[in-house]
Amino acid sequence: MDALLQLDKATIRFGGLTAVSELDLQIGRNELVGLIGPNGAGKTTAFNLITGVYAPTSGGIFFDGRSIAGSKPYRITARGIARTFQNIRLFPSLTVFDNVRAVFHLHLRGDVRQALWRGKGYHAEEKSIAGRVMTLLDIFQLGKFRDEPAKSLSYGDQRRLEIVRALAATPRLLLLDEPAAGMNSTEKVELTRLIRFIREQFQISILLVEHDMQLVMGICERIAVLDYGVKIAEGTPEEVRRNPKVIEAYLGD
Amino acid sequence: MTEFLQQLINGLAFGSILALIALGYTMVYGILRFINFAHGDVFMLGAFSGFYLAPKIAALLPLPSIAGGIAVLLASMAICAALGVVIERFAYRPLRHRPKLTMLITAIGVSLFLEYTGQFVFGAAPKSFPQILPVYPLARLGGLSLNSNQLIVFGVTLGLLLALRFIVLNTKIGTAMRAVSFNPEAAALMGVNTDIVISFTFALGSALAAAAGILWAVNYPAIDPLMGILPGLKAFVAAVLGGIGNLPGAALGGIIIGVTETLVSGYISSTYRDAIAFGVLILILLVKPSGLLGKKEIEKV
Amino acid sequence: MNTSQPRARWSDKLAQGCRSIRIAFLGLAALGLQYTKTSLLIAIALSFLVSLVADRINPYWLYISYDIAISIIMAVSLNLINGYTGQFSLGHAGFMAVGGYAAAMITNQFGHLNFFAADGIFAVALLAGGLAAAATGLLVGLPTLRLRGDYLAIVTLGFGEIIRVIFQNMNSVGGARGLSVAHGWTNFFWSFGLVAVTVYVVASLVNSTYGCGFIAVHDDEIAAEAMGINTTKYKVTAFVIGAFFAGIAGGLYAHAKQFLTPGGFGFMQSITFVVMVILGGMGNTIGVILAAILLTLLPEGLRYLAGIEHVPGIAQAFPLGWIGDTRMIIYSLLLIVLMLTRPQGLFRLRKRKT
Description:
The complex is a heterotrimer.
Chain A: E1 5-14, E2 17-27, E3 32-36, H1 43-51, E4 58-63, E5 66-67, H2 73-79, E6 81-83, H3 96-103, H4 112-117, H5 120-139, H6 155-167, E7 173-177, H7 185-202, E8 205-209, H8 213-219, E9 222-227, E10 230-235, H9 237-242, H10 244-251
Parallel strand pairs in A: 3-8, 3-9, 6-7, 7-8
Antiparallel strand pairs in A: 1-2, 1-4, 4-5, 9-10
Helix pairs in contact in A: 3-6
Chain B: H1 2-32, H2 39-58, H3 66-92, H4 100-122, E1 127-128, E2 137-141, E3 144-147, H5 148-170, H6 172-182, H7 184-189, H8 194-219, E4 222-223, H9 229-242, H10 247-267, H11 273-287
Antiparallel strand pairs in B: 1-4, 2-3
Helix pairs in contact in B: 1-5, 1-8, 1-9, 1-10, 2-3, 2-4, 2-8, 2-9, 3-8, 5-6, 5-8, 6-8, 9-10, 9-11, 10-11
Chain C: H1 4-33, H2 37-52, H3 59-84, H4 92-110, H5 118-144, H6 149-168, E1 179-180, H7 188-206, H8 209-219, H9 221-226, H10 231-257, E2 259-260, H11 267-280, H12 285-307, H13 314-317, H14 322-341
Antiparallel strand pairs in C: 1-2
Helix pairs in contact in C: 1-2, 1-7, 2-7, 3-7, 3-10, 3-11, 3-12, 4-5, 4-6, 4-10, 5-10, 7-10, 11-12, 12-14
């Protein structure tokens, strides 16, 4: 199996509603895939299936060849899938620095005991973590805000910080949930550049759920289209754009 | 069998009183999402209002008598309703947009204030509650004793529950209460005066607690300023058990706690009496975290 | 002649009180600067030095200082659960009871043996009390910590009450009549040394990369989980560590009062500690320490003011005798006023150090 992430007829029902139905989706290594669809099409639900917020009612989800269906979100993150949220969910009472630092517990060698004993190993490790956090923050021009509370950042900076926080988990697959929501066109151009940069710099795969067609068409090499929980089309941006079902789904609204 | 029936009747009477208190907790929670810790003390003040009102009312109406008893009940309910409104206005309203925890601590402060002030004003020693209702022994069936007081507990509770149901479902203010409970911002935008609705809710809940206090005092006629603590806690447990914010749930929870506690302390061990309510609560919450009739709240991701 | 006698005693008392409090503060200040092992050792050494001259401190104030130390340990450990991790627990006094009874049973049983110095047995008893409370915390925490907010609050309250009722029914520990504790071993060294340890543990936990997880759980459980934080494990960890120190405080309490009753660990006690945490500004260790000191001294202070009645001169100018009867009313009113005027806590710092 060559795909990094593979959804195999993944289905989830809430009561009588089938939010996502038999979704097949593959994401290859270092691939940038878009998932689009009209409002309520099940994009975010599909996202929550992959990240373990919901367990699929039926069907399989495989990451790197191993099933992650029904795993707890924190285990899935530890496996190498990190995400951002549609409505930004930073840790508001932590500083910018600590928001990123909190994720580094994933890479800690020691545990509670080390934090309490505060020996040489602890200080060395905290120092190296601080270095890595600052490197990440600096790459995204957030270093100057290191001691500000996360909630005091501007909207765009908060979005960026959320991406940095996800990257701190050293994922192999990054899931971005409507990163362009609430952005103006200049910020969107900036975001496009940022997503391309992340992919090249960190050599990871990205799944992008997005409302904004233009943005998705501009950067994704492959796009899947959901409507009422069913995948109605998949292909290159050009193919998707011409697909009559897609046009109908978007215009039929 | 008679023994069991007797325990059941005692349990139902106790449970009815808990249910009346629990309704106040649950109504306030439904609207403000906040645990009004002082509610048990309003129950206490209901009993004390009755204590001090009875001699005054005896000057106008014969006591003990049905009419006199009802007059004491209604007057205490009115006093406590006013008190509930005052407490909300001065202690809780200024904190409405603060974290709920702040309001909770304030409520604890109010609760302590009422208890200590009660001790200062009424005295800490228990007082014996005057007889305000004539007592008729009813059906004596082979050792089963049921007197008119217990019947009155059931009657009054049922009457108040029906009245509450009517208010919540069939009146304008009741509709407003449900609207605020469902979505306070939207209700305010639709022209509901949330301040009035919240005041009304406190008045209603406090009146029910006062009624519970009178019923309690009629059945267990020693009253003291700390008498509200345990029934208050148990009633709160009852409200959570039924699914907090849910009116039928509170009534159901009260009955369950009352009956279980009476049966267990009658048949198994009376020394564990005060732990029973909590034991039942923990068991049920572990199986059904949102309470018996509560709706599961799904957090949107 | 008659008039100068009580006045001297009173000013003396005050001066000595101030002195012992100042010493206690010194130790805390040393800690407050930096949570390092060195400052921990300094604070422990300081409490040891003070305990050497303890017989020169007024016994009344010494006794109050133990109360203060116990309150600080309770409030700081509860702050890990309620403040930093954001899990609202209302049953902290229950863990204190477990620790107190466990430690007292050990010293009552083995206190007369001379295998170790008395301090050795006391240390073992305190540790055992802490561990017993931690085990109870694990038992209570595992099933209940998936509940949220008010539900968790009421269930922890319930567990606290159940623990109390169980002790009430255990005849081996005296049941409702209470348990006499044979040895009054709590002293300045143990009480403030353990304050230092508690503060060190809680502060160094939350100030580490590992500890950012506690605050992340407090801020947003879903985001924390998505960032790889095992929220259940963090919550249980906070709960167990908090319970451990509550158990230690219980052991100190048992050997300070030398008498335990189940009624002393009711939910009003738990609420007192919660109030300390909230007044201190949730998740602010220094503030919580100050609030614990303040709230322990407040009832004493009011009791004291009522006593000034007997000082001639003052009694005529300010009749204060009424304070004696109404001090708890004043206490509750102060609580309400404080919440209305400073709901963010008395000592909320502008920016939290993490």
